[in-house]
Amino acid sequence: MIKYKKAEARSWAREHLVGCSGVTIPSYTADLKNLNENGIRHDIELLKSFGHSYTLLCTEVTITVEENAKFTAWARDTAGADFGLFFHAGWGTLADNIEAVQMAEEAGADLVLLSYPPQFWPTTEQEIYDYTKAFCEATALGVMLFPIPTWGFERIHPAGMSVQLMKRLVNDLPNVVAIKSEQGFPLVGGVFEMWHHFHDEVVISCPIEGDAIPLMQQLALQFSGTSNTQWLSDYYPRAFALARTGRWEAAMELYWQVNPARQAYAAAMQASAGAGVINRTIWKYMDWLAGFNGGPLRAPAMRCPDRFMKSLRKSLQDARMPVTADPDVQFMFGRYPG
Predict the structure, then answer these.
(1) Cis bond leading into 139, ω under 30°?
(2) d(Cα 265, Cα 277) in Å, to the nearest integer?
């Protein structure tokens, strides 16, 4: 059951969209034919224990809308009512995303992260507006807008999603409750611009932990997500809470402690930069290092080369973060093989 009425979505988010959101990639059985319930429940429990207050149930993998509803229901049952779940609007068509979000509403999702399909190729801001409006009107959930160069909207405006477009969306769609601000990524101009124009109306998120902690010396961020910060165990919720409560210098001490891991992650992601697709296998491996289930992903899936496995493992050791002693070969089996 949705925790608020649609007209109350922004006020609810102001009060409840607080802290950090991780990302949960679904686990599958060994034959890849079904979801792995034990692996999924383990991952939700562990992420919550690290102090994250939300997670994104990632759908940029091979998963059906029906499976995603089951994924959501298991996550809700495992996490309890005091933990937030983001539905990930990551399917290939508007119709599929609408069908999936309506099923996720029934299964227990709290909010939406709105992505745009690779097949969506707008040439005007009106087309982006129309897609976004159609989706938002089809769901009772609060929606977090997500401007980022991944969508390729820079053919229309250098910012991808301009201030003028964002103003129309915020003004016209009452269930737009937050902005995951990544215009111009990897630069921080989008975060500052969205904060300048909209922080009194909706929640502004800087999901990049390497940016958010330093920026909190100037910006009163209440929420950061969604991103795979859970591979650093409880570091990010702790550092974010310190920065948010006036202990920024203590947060920065933790920030520098984990810098080896941050750098290794950036190097691994650079291998697929420009493709507009995140290597979710690398993300799954990173999580496995921190104690999450791991296990195989359905094809088509990118690979995690050995050189990145070695550098990511060592980086967690250098950052004095928890890291499994299990050999890398165990990653493909997972901790809860189905």
Answers:
(1) no
(2) 15
Assigned token pair, 255: 């920030």
**Token pair listed for 150:** 């991944």
Please name the residues in contact with 47: beta carbons below 8 A apart, sequence gap of 6 or more. Answer: 22, 24, 55, 230, 292
The domain spanning residue 213 has which CATH number?
Answer: 3.20.20.70
E strands, the chain, where?
A: 19-24, 54-57, 84-89, 111-114, 142-145, 176-180, 203-205, 223-224
Within a domain: 267: no
Domain assignment present for residue 272? The answer is no
**Number of structural domains in the chain:** 1
Residue 297 lies in a domain: no
Q: Which domain holds residue 76?
A: 6-247
Q: What is the pLDDT of residues 224-262, one digit of tens each?
A: 999 999 999 999 999 999 999 999 999 999 999 999 999
**Residue linked to tokens 């996490």:** 79
Q: What whole-number distance in Å separates Cα of residue 261 and Cα of residue 313?
A: 9
Residue 128's pLDDT is: 98
> What is the average pLDDT across 127-149?
98
* DSSP count for the chain of H helices, then E strands: 13, 8
Query: Do residues 300 and 269 make contact, with C-beta atoms less than 8 angstroms apart?
Result: no
Q: What is the pTM of this model?
A: 0.97
Q: State how far the alpha carbon of 246 is from the alpha carbons of 41, 50, 104, 249, 261, in Å.
A: 34, 21, 37, 9, 25
Residue 122 lies in a domain: yes
Sign of CA dihedral 90, 95, 98, 100: negative
Q: How far apart, in whole angstroms, are the C-alpha atoms of residue 182 and residue 132?
A: 17
**What digits encode the pLDDT tens for the residues 280-325?**
999 999 999 999 999 999 999 999 999 999 999 999 999 999 999 9
